[in-house]
Design brief:
Layout (H helix, E strand, L loop, with lengths): L1 E3 H14 L4 H16 L7 H13 L6 E6 L2 E9 L1 H19 L1 E9 L5 H10 L3 E6 L21 E5 L6 E5 L6 H10 L8 E2 L5 E2 L7 E2 L5 H13 L16 E8 L7 H16 L15 H13 L1 E3 L2 H9 L1
Helix pairs in contact: 1-2, 2-3, 2-4, 4-5
Length: about 325
């Protein structure tokens, strides 16, 4: 079913204000769910709001506090605050510091989840900074290569690099598919693709209810990258991870001035040349276009904004109305 963007945004904000969030906080939280939907990331869009709202409604919320504040870095004690509220402040703080120092990082612990580190990496990029955003995936969900139980989380990566029309943006989990795809399949009564996950015996499964663990992308390479990120969003920022997970998240945001080693003109010129080379590469038969990260999401967002509406699964809309 189609619904106006302004209408669904108003519904989400009203739902949040109903359970005690201020207008500013409701805007910060709903921003990420709307952005995900506009970019065509259904599993990290409005569907994600339904699940998050149910948690927010019954979970006692704390308020974050910046406990360490230095010229090039800061640390945030989350106090179980909402992820989007903390992330918004953290990326603003990192960007502000990086504009003075060239590079800055903000780490934190003990927050509830935000959806996509790519959201906040893009915020940095749209402010003229390179954004490197990482967060702990929230619990043992992924099996290390060779294991048949979940030990690591999906530990997503967000990278944003400023560029002319739209930023270069990477948003990806280290698992073959983000775990939201499993939950979404369960909610909609659908199967998952073979190779996404394993059951308790270690065999691949297409039944979302039988999933014991998701698998890392690229086999061993995805596993070791995930392990490195678990350290950076775990021990490095005072967060319990692995089997010691306590269902709260750690994160690390890094902002970098892209012109510290070059000029804006030269950076944009050379980046444009690289992207032109990539998009102009000789294609395999049947491939119509080579895309760069962030391009498809930008096109999806632009198209929906022009229409002024989005298409939501009827079941998801019914769930929102029941909240």
């Amino acid at each position: 079913m189609r619904i106006q963007i302004e209408e669904i945004e108003k519904i989400l904000k009203n739902k949040l204000r109903k359970i005690g969030f201020t207008t500013k906080e409701a805007k910060a939280i709903s921003f990420e769910y709307i952005a995900g939907e506009l970019k065509g990331k259904g599993s990290h869009g409005i569907y994600g709001f339904v699940r998050a709202y149910k948690k927010l409604k019954k979970t006692k919320r704390g308020h974050f506090k910046v406990t360490k504040d230095k010229p090039a870095y800061a640390f945030i004690s989350g106090n179980r605050d909402v992820g989007q509220i903390v992330a918004y402040h953290a990326i603003e703080l990192a960007v502000k510091k990086a504009k003075k120092t060239g590079i800055a990082m903000v780490g934190g612990e003990n927050i509830h989840s935000f959806l996509r580190p790519g959201t906040w990496a893009e915020v940095a990029a749209r402010k003229g900074m390179i954004g490197l955003c990482f967060n702990y995936g929230g619990g043992p969900l992924m099996a290390p290569t060779g294991a048949r139980e979940a030990i690591l989380s999906t530990n997503p990566i967000g990278i944003g690099i400023p560029f002319k029309e739209y930023p270069f943006v990477i948003d990806m989990a280290v698992s073959t598919r983000a775990f939201y795809h499993i939950r979404m399949a369960q909610s909609l009564g659908k199967k998952i693709q073979n190779g996404w996950a394993i059951d308790k015996t270690g065999k691949t499964t297409t039944d979302p209810d039988a999933v014991e663990a998701v698998l890392p992308f690229g086999g061993y390479k995805g596993y070791i990258l995930g392990l490195a990120l678990e350290i950076l969003t775990g021990p490095f920022v005072r967060t319990k991870v692995g089997k010691s997970t306590k269902k709260v998240r750690g994160f690390l945001f890094i902002a970098i001035d892209p012109y510290v080693f070059t000029t804006k003109h030269d950076f944009n010129r050379d980046m444009a040349k690289l992207i032109k080379d990539v998009k102009g590469a000789k294609r395999i038969k049947g491939v119509k276009e080579i895309r760069i990260p962030g391009e498809l999401a930008y096109k999806n967002e632009t198209k929906k904004m022009k229409l002024g509406s989005i298409n939501l699964d009827k079941k998801i809309m019914e769930e929102i109305q029941k909240l």
